[in-house]
Recover the amino acids of this structure.
C-alpha cells in the first residue's frame, strides 16, 4: 500500500525551508546584543518571536512526525528564547549570582523570617475561620427562602465580590480611624480578608447545599426526620464533603492575599525582605521570601488538587 | 384566606418555638437582655465590650432565624423582623463608636476637601484604566498563545509551560511586583513603574487565562472534531463553524471574570508608585487629613466593578444552561 | 371526622394547581386498612402528584386529606409524627450515600423514635433478610445494584413500622432483570396485610396483588374498581383507550 503524500505544507522540505529562513533571520536580521532602545529593534525582535512560535506550533501539531524530533525542536526553541532574553534585556548578567542569589550574605539572617511567617499563617487562619463562619451563617439564612433576606445577602455578596482587596484594606485601616475605629494593622487585615472572602464562601456553601439533591431531603422528611435532624444527619455530612475542595482553594487565595498586609504596615515577610535588602544591598532576601511563599502555598495546592480529584470521583458515584 | 380561619383551633399543635406567645415572649426577653447586657454608651469604662456585643448579636441572629424560618408567619412580620434586626445592628454600630449620622457627612463625604484636586483623581482614574486595558489585552494574547501551545501535546513543552503557569499562579502578585520593581534595577534592568505594572499583570493573568483557554478548548476538542471530520468538513471549516463558536461560548464567562480580576489587581500596583486611582486618592487623603478621597475612589471602583460583576454572573448562569 | 372505622385514608375534593396548570381536579376516595390500591394512568395525569399530596410532599391547593383520622392538610399539624406512620419508596431510591445499607435503615428509628441502637440494628438485619439483601448490610449504596438499593429503601421505610406504604413508580428506574426481585418483596408485603398505595406501570403486579385499581387521567379518577374488572370490562371509554395502549 502506497502511503499518501502529505500536502506541501506538511512535508519535510517545507519544514527545513522554514528552519533555514529562521536561522537566517536569527543570525543576520536580528539586532545586535544590548537593550532594546528603539521601537524598530523592538518590532524586529517581536516579529521574530511570532514567526518562531508559529513555526513551532505548526510543527508540533503535525501528528505524523515522531516525538523525539519534536522534543529536540522544543529544546532548541527554549534555548533560543533564553538566549534572546539574555542578550536583549540589557542586564548585567555577570553580577546575577552576586546580586540575586547571594546566599553568603544571608547567613545567620534566616531567623528574622520566622516570626513574620507565623504571623502570615495566623492572619490567614483567622481570616479563613471568620470567612467560613460568616459564609455558613449567611447560607443558613439564605435557606429560609425569605425574599427580603435573600436580596440583602445578594447585595452583600455583590458588593464584596466587586471590591478590590487592596481598596477594602486601605479603607479599613486608613479611613475608619476617622470615626474612631482604630484597628491595629493585623486586625485590619483579618477583618478585611474575612469580609472579602466571606462573599466567596457564601457562594461555596450555597452551591454545596444546592448540589444535594432535593430527593435526599424528601426521603429524610418522609422518614419523619425534622428539619434540624435532616440538616444534621443527612445534609451536613454530604455538604461538608462537597464544600471542602473549593474552601481549600479559597484558603490558598487567602494565603496569597495576606501578602497585601505589607501595605498597611504589618511586619510581614515583605517588610523584612525590604529591610534586609536595603541593608545588605542585594536582592536575595526577596528571593528567599518568594521561596518561603512557595513552601507555604505549594502543600495547599497539592492538597487542593488531590481533594478535587477525590470529590470528582465521589460525585460520579 | 379561608384556610387560615379553618385551622385556628389547631394552632395548639405547633411546637413551642413556633407559637405566637413565644414570638412575643422572645422579643421581650431580647429587649430585656439588651438593657441588661449592653452597657450605657456614654460610660467611660466598659468591661468586655466586644464580648457583650458579640453575644447580643448572636442572640439577635437566633431570634431572627427562628422567626424567619417559619413559613406560617405572615410576610409583613418577616419584613419587620429583618429590618428591625438591621436597625438594631446599625444602632449598635453608631452608639458604640460615638459619632452621629450627621458626622458621617463631613467626615466621609466632605467634597470641599477635594477642591482643586479633582484633576489628580482624574489622572489616577485614567492611569488605572490604561493599566487595566493594556494588561488585559497582553494577558489575553499571552494566554491564547500559551493555552494553544499546551494543547499541542508535547510533553517537554508542556513541562516548561506548566512551570511558568504554576509559578505565576502560586506567587502573590505583590511579591512579584516588588521583585520586578525593586530587584531588577540591581541588574541594571530599569523598567518604569507603569511598564513593570503592565509586565507583572500581563504575565500573572496570562497564566490564568492560558488555563482558561486550554481547558475551554480541550473540553470540546475530540468528539466535535471527529463528527465534523466524518461529515467531510475541512479543517478551516471545522474551526470556523464548529470549534471556535463553541470555544468562544465556553471561554467567555471565565475570561470576562479574569478581566474584572485584572481591574481589581491594578489596585495592588498602587504600591509601586504608579499614580493610579487608589494611590492618588491616598495622596489627597494624607494631604488633607480627610478620608473623603478614599471614599470617592471606592465609589468609582464599585461603580464600575459592581455592574461588571452583575453582568458576568448573569453570563455565567446563561452559559451554564446552554452548554449542557 | 371518620366515616368508617377502618378507613385509614380519606381524600375529599383534592385539587392541586402548579401555577395555572390544574393537575388534580377534585379527587375523592377512601382507602381501607389492608387494601392494596394501584394507581394507573398516562404520564402527566397526576398519579405521582396525587401520591405526593397524600403525605404533603406537595402542598394541596384545596381539599382535605385524613390519614388515620388526623387531618393532615391542617397547617399546624405535626407532620413529622404523621409521616412516621407512612412509609414511602421513591422511583430513584434516594438512599443516603454517606451511610451503609444498615445505617440507612437505622437512621430514622434511632433519631426520630429514639430507639435503642442495638434493637434497631437487629430489626434492620431482620428487614434486610426479609427483602433479601442481608449480605450487603455494610455496603454503601454506590456498591449496590439498582434492585438491591430499592430493596434497601423498602427496608428503610419498613423500619419505622408504618401503617401505610406508598410506592411512587418503584420499578421505573430499574433494569428489567431487577424488577422481579423488587416486585416479589412488594407482593409479600401485600400478603402480610400492609395497606399499600402503588403508582406503577407494572401490569403483572397490579393484576396479581392489588385489591383495587384507580385510573387517573387528566386529574380525575375516571375508573375505580377491582383489578380484574377494570382490565376485562372497563366502564369508561377513556380507560379503554389507555388500556389499549398498554396491554
Amino acid at each position: 500500500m502506497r502511503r499518501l503524500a502529505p500536502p506541501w505544507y506538511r512535508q519535510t522540505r517545507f519544514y527545513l525551508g522554514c528552519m533555514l529562513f529562521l536561522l537566517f533571520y536569527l543570525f543576520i536580521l536580528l539586532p545586535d546584543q544590548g537593550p532594546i532602545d528603539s521601537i524598530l529593534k523592538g518590532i524586529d525582535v517581536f516579529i521574530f518571536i511570532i514567526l518562531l512560535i508559529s513555526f513551532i506550533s505548526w510543527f508540533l501539531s503535525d501528528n505524523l512526525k515522531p516525538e523525539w524530533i519534536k522534543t529536540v525542536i522544543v529544546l532548541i526553541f527554549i534555548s533560543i528564547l533564553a538566549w534572546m532574553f539574555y542578550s536583549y534585556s540589557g542586564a548585567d548578567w555577570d553580577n546575577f549570582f552576586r546580586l540575586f542569589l547571594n546566599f553568603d550574605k544571608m547567613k545567620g539572617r534566616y531567623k528574622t523570617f520566622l516570626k513574620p511567617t507565623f504571623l502570615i499563617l495566623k492572619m490567614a487562619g483567622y481570616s479563613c475561620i471568620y470567612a467560613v463562619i460568616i459564609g455558613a451563617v449567611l447560607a443558613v439564612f439564605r435557606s429560609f427562602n425569605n425574599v427580603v433576606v435573600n436580596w440583602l445577602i445578594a447585595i452583600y455578596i455583590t458588593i464584596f465580590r466587586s471590591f478590590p482587596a487592596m481598596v477594602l484594606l486601605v479603607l479599613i485601616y486608613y479611613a475608619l480611624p476617622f470615626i474612631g475605629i482604630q484597628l491595629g494593622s493585623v486586625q485590619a487585615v483579618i477583618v478585611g480578608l474575612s469580609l472579602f472572602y466571606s462573599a466567596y464562601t457564601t457562594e461555596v456553601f450555597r452551591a454545596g447545599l444546592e448540589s444535594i439533591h432535593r430527593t435526599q431531603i424528601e426521603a429524610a422528611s418522609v422518614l419523619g426526620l425534622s428539619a434540624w435532624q435532616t440538616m444534621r444527619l443527612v445534609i451536613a455530612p454530604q455538604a461538608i464533603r462537597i464544600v471542602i475542595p473549593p474552601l481549600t482553594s479559597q484558603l490558598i487565595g487567602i494565603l496569597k492575599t495576606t501578602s497585601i498586609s505589607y501595605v498597611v504596615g504589618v511586619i510581614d515577610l515583605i517588610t523584612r525582605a525590604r529591610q534586609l535588602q536595603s541593608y545588605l544591598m542585594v536582592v536575595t532576601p526577596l528571593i528567599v521570601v518568594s521561596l518561603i511563599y512557595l513552601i507555604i502555598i505549594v502543600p495547599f495546592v497539592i492538597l487542593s488538587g488531590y481533594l478535587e480529584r477525590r470529590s470528582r470521583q465521589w460525585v460520579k458515584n | 384566606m379561608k384556610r387560615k380561619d379553618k385551622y385556628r383551633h389547631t394552632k395548639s399543635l405547633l411546637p413551642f418555638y413556633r407559637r405566637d406567645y413565644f414570638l412575643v415572649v422572645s422579643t421581650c426577653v431580647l429587649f430585656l437582655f439588651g438593657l441588661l447586657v449592653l452597657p450605657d454608651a456614654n460610660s467611660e469604662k466598659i468591661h468586655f465590650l466586644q464580648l457583650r456585643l458579640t453575644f447580643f448579636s448572636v442572640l439577635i441572629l437566633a431570634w431572627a432565624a427562628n422567626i424567619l424560618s417559619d413559613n406560617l408567619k405572615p410576610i409583613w412580620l418577616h419584613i419587620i423582623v429583618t429590618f428591625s434586626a438591621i436597625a438594631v445592628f446599625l444602632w449598635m454600630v453608631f452608639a458604640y463608636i460615638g459619632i452621629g449620622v450627621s458626622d458621617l457627612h463631613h467626615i466621609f463625604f466632605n467634597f470641599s476637601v477635594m477642591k482643586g484636586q479633582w484633576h489628580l483623581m482624574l489622572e489616577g482614574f485614567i492611569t488605572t484604566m490604561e493599566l487595566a486595558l493594556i494588561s488585559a489585552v497582553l494577558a489575553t494574547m499571552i494566554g491564547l498563545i500559551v493555552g494553544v501551545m499546551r494543547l499541542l501535546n508535547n510533553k517537554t513543552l508542556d513541562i516548561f509551560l506548566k512551570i511558568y503557569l504554576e509559578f505565576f499562579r502560586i506567587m502573590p502578585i505583590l511579591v512579584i511586583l516588588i521583585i520586578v520593581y525593586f530587584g531588577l534595577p540591581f541588574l541594571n534592568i530599569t523598567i518604569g513603574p507603569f511598564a513593570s505594572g503592565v509586565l507583572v499583570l500581563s504575565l500573572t493573568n496570562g497564566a490564568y487565562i492560558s488555563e482558561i483557554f486550554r481547558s475551554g478548548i480541550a473540553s470540546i476538542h475530540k468528539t466535535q472534531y471527529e463528527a465534523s471530520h466524518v461529515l467531510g468538513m475541512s479543517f478551516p471549516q471545522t474551526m470556523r463553524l464548529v470549534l471556535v463558536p463553541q470555544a468562544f461560548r465556553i471561554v467567555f464567562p471565565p475570561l470576562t471574570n479574569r478581566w474584572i480580576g485584572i481591574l481589581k489587581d491594578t489596585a495592588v500596583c498602587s504600591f509601586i508608585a504608579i499614580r493610579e486611582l487608589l494611590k492618588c486618592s491616598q495622596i489627597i487623603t494624607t494631604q488633607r487629613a480627610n478620608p473623603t478621597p478614599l471614599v470617592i475612589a471606592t465609589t468609582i471602583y464599585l461603580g464600575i466593578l459592581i455592574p461588571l460583576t452583575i453582568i458576568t454572573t448573569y453570563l455565567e448562569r446563561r452559559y451554564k444552561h446552554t452548554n449542557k | 371526622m371518620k366515616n368508617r372505622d377502618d378507613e385509614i385514608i380519606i381524600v375529599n375534593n383534592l385539587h392541586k394547581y402548579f401555577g395555572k396548570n390544574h393537575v388534580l381536579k377534585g379527587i375523592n376516595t377512601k382507602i381501607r386498612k389492608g387494601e392494596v390500591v394501584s394507581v394507573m394512568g398516562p404520564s402527566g395525569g397526576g398519579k405521582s402528584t396525587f401520591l405526593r399530596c397524600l403525605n404533603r410532599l406537595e402542598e394541596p391547593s384545596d381539599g382535605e386529606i385524613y390519614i388515620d383520622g388526623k387531618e393532615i392538610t391542617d397547617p399546624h399539624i405535626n407532620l413529622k409524627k404523621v409521616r412516621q406512620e407512612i412509609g414511602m419508596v421513591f422511583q430513584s431510591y434516594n438512599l443516603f450515600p454517606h451511610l451503609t445499607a444498615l445505617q440507612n435503615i437505622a437512621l430514622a428509628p434511632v433519631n426520630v423514635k429514639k430507639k435503642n441502637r442495638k434493637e434497631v440494628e437487629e430489626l434492620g438485619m431482620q428487614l434486610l433478610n426479609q427483602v433479601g439483601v442481608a449480605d450487603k448490610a455494610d455496603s454503601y449504596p454506590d456498591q449496590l445494584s439498582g434492585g438491591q438499593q430499592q430493596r434497601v429503601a423498602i427496608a428503610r421505610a419498613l423500619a419505622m413500622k408504618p401503617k401505610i406504604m406508598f410506592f411512587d413508580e418503584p420499578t421505573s428506574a430499574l433494569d428489567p432483570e431487577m424488577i422481579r426481585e423488587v416486585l416479589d418483596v412488594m407482593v409479600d408485603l401485600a400478603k402480610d396485610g400492609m395497606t399499600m398505595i402503588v403508582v406503577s406501570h407494572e401490569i403483572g403486579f397490579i393484576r396479581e396483588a392489588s385489591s383495587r385499581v384507580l385510573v387517573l387521567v387528566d386529574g380525575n379518577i375516571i375508573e375505580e374498581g377491582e383489578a380484574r374488572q377494570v382490565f376485562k370490562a372497563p366502564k369508561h371509554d377513556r380507560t379503554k383507550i389507555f388500556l389499549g395502549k398498554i396491554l
